[in-house]
Amino acid sequence: MCGLTGFFQSQGEHADARTTATAMAAQIVHRGPDDSGVWVDEAAGIALAHRRLSILDPSPAGHQPMLSASGRYVIVFNGEIYNHLDLREELAGYSWRGHSDTETLLAAFEIWGIESTLKKTVGMFAIALWDRETRTLTLARDRLGEKPLYYGWQNGVLLFGSELKALRVHPAFVGEIDRDALTLFLRHNAIPSPYSIYKGINKLPPGTFWQAGCESLVSGSGRGAIRTYWSARVAAESGQKKPFSGTDDEACAALEAVLGQSVAGQMMADVPLGAFLSGGIDSTTVVALMQARSSRPVKTFTIGFNEAGYNEAEHAHAVARHLGTEHTELYVKPEEAQAVIPLLPSLYDEPFADSSQIPTYLVSRLAKSHVTVSLSGDGGDELFGGYNRYFWAQNIWRRLGWLPQSVRAALAGVLTTLPPTAWNSAFRKFDGLLPAKLRYANPGDKLHKLADILAVRNPEEIYWGLVSHWKQPAQIVKGATEPPTVLTDASQWADVPDLTHRMMYLDTVTYLPDDILAKVDRAAMGVSLETRVPLLDHRVLEFAWALPLGMKLRDGQSKWLLRQVLYQHVPKELIERPKMGFGIPLDVWLRGPLKDWAEDLLSPSRLDAEGYFQSGPIQQKWREHLSGQRNWSYYLWDVLMFQQWHEAAR
Questions:
Q1: Please, are residues 383 and 541 in contact by the beta-carbon 8 Å criterion?
Q2: Is there a smaller number of Cβ atoms within 10 Å at the N or the C end of the chain?
Q3: In angstroms, how far is CA 155 from the centroid of its own chain?
């Protein structure tokens, strides 16, 4: 795992490209503390820089930027190619200088070409490749978006890199905040691809590569072409058109085989390796398959909280004891978790507000004290149906969808005629007469949420509401219009036969890369830890999409088939429990130890002076949250994370 950056500029525009490229790479030293390198062709106008975290071939033979044997290609590469030894066998007769996967990629590009090579790879990566012969720049990103890659034009200079902080130090960088992208951030707590927080800077979409020849690079026109070498949409549609037709037992055996293949490939490393273990279905499956393939105890890591409802450590401990791993756990005090908050703008160098970023950083820091590589269980929810919304959306629509939309809209209007506080007072008067299952702490809050759902026109809008924080963010951000995304453009949706699979697909191409994978990458690389995600091997995804829905959701149980694989290794009673998110008691903290910090960032005078947000709606939610009438913690955290990021970025 490493970090890359670079730029292209017309000849003579900058006096010392090497110094600038070195400064850019210095901003991402955490991604690669072991080595650094810069390659510059002043005549061509290209500079490539690299920071290295040595995982495979830590010798000088793995140094980057690396030239191909013929000298035609120069590469900076971030990630791992898990099947690079298999690729070397196909490249028989090639004379190798070392055993790094970077050298394997360069040889493959020379012999097979860029697109064919990308299609042959199994791995996670971001790549910048300069063709010295044709003077063409290629930027490429892995299939699911595990590794980040930003690029864009600023003052006629093309900048690119693993993180925005590398781009910001270039003299041409402007850094104008994109207010439209900010609306997307308030809705989704992360900025979705292809947008970034800055105008003119994009994220390269997963599964694609971008190319621009010298003519368009010199003109600064940005007419580079994005091409797709692998598509999650094609994988989903193909799998559903040719579904797996075997028995449950055959499906279980086939899934274990493809998962085992992925895990074995991702255990390849020349440095100490371990795994995150929460005790949930996904991480336990990964660790169980690792341990089955290891001659020594796998190193596993968990953090715990003493707050009820937020602690998975005891479950992870039981699983680790059963599997015989070398387990390390750390119970974190609230003040230790809160101490991470000042680090967040640097870790996530554009606004990011998934509050599980805090425990993710803490478990990464714990793991880094013992290993250099850690495997993660992310991806199981999207591929095998793990999120509660997959049940909720279907159930809600089944119960309410038969009513005409006009009737449902009218009911929603009735429910919202009274504010939540009035509903709370009304319910308290009849509290003794209501059955226990209808006694809620804040019934008015729940009735208003029900009103949002009642008013939808189709089941997809239920999903849209479930994945949205601020429902009308363009009314909160001054001078902004919410731009289109995959979620709002049905023409980009996979043609799959049921609502649940449509939700799983949309989560795979939006929430997974933009939130989950970004969260893990930044938290782990912030402490120079490489993370790998075996469930997101594209062969696992393609197999999962061939499974009928009944093998994912069955009898009210999520991830049914994945559980059957896990039961071969771990007793049911160790893992069968309600799903628990990897979170923190954010709502309580905002009313307590974080109150003064939040009060300052959310003050009307500050919001009005900075000019990005309408202060009124934010203040209303802040007051309601402090009073305990509503839980607006996720909405408020979005604004707080932008405010803190903006303060640090100025």
A1: yes
A2: C
A3: 30
Residue 471: strand, helix, or coil = coil
* Cβ neighbours, 10 Å, residue 365: 18
- Reduced to 3 states (helix: H, G, I; strand: E, B; else coil), residue 487 is helix
Compute how many other C-beta atoms are within 10 angstroms of the C-beta atom of residue 259. 23
Which of the 8 DSSP states describes residue 197? S
- Mapped onto helix, strand or coil, the DSSP state of residue 394 is helix
- Model pLDDT, residue 223: 64
Q: DSSP letters along 326-371, please?
A: EEEEEEE-HHHHHTTGGGHHHHSSS----TTHHHHHHHHHHHHTT-
Catalytic residues, by residue number, are 2
User: What's residue 211's pLDDT?
Assistant: 95
Mark residue 155 as left, alpha or beta (left: phi above 0; alpha: psi -120 to 50; beta: remaining). left
SS3 state of residue 172: coil
What length does the chain have? 650
pTM for this model (two decimals): 0.93
Which residue stretches of the chain have pLDDT < 70? 1, 11-15, 56-57, 215-223, 308-311, 430-442, 445-446, 578-582
At residue 220, the pLDDT reads 53
CA angle 319, 325, 326 (to 5 degrees): 125
d(CA 524, CA 125): 15
Q: pLDDT tens digits, residue range 516-565?
A: 999 999 999 999 999 999 999 999 999 999 999 999 999 989 999 999 99
The count of C-alpha atoms lying within 13 angstroms of the C-alpha of 146, restricted to the half-sphere facing its C-beta, is: 27
User: Of the candidates 349, 389, 361, 429, which has an alpha carbon nearest to the alpha carbon of residue 150?
Assistant: 349
Quote the pLDDT of residue 270: 82
525 neighbors 30 (Cβ within 8 angstroms): yes
* SS3 (DSSP) at 604: helix
The 8-class DSSP code of residue 56 comes to: S
Structure tokens at 302: 């968990």
Determine the pLDDT at residue 440: 57
Q: How many CA atoms lie within 13 A of 291 on its CB side?
A: 25
Q: What was the pLDDT predicted at 286?
A: 98
Q: Which residues contact 113 (CB under 8 A, 6 or more apart)?
A: none
Return the DSSP state at 554.
Answer: B
519 with 581: CB under 8 angstroms? no
pLDDT for position 10: 74
Consecutive H or E run containing 303:
strand 299-305
Write down the pLDDT at residue 455: 76
| ∠ Cα 259 360 167 (to 5°) | 100
From residue 101, give the alpha-carbon distance in Å to each of 39, 61, 108, 116, 613: 19, 11, 10, 16, 47
Q: Do the beta carbons of residue 96 and residue 505 sit within 8 Å?
A: no
Write the CA distances from 31 to 50, 102, 266, 443, 649, integer angstroms: 10, 16, 19, 47, 20
Which residues is 375 bridged to in the sheet?
Answer: 275, 532
DSSP SS3 for 459: helix
Q: What is the CA radius of gyration of the chain?
A: 25
Pair of tokens at residue 136: 């063409």
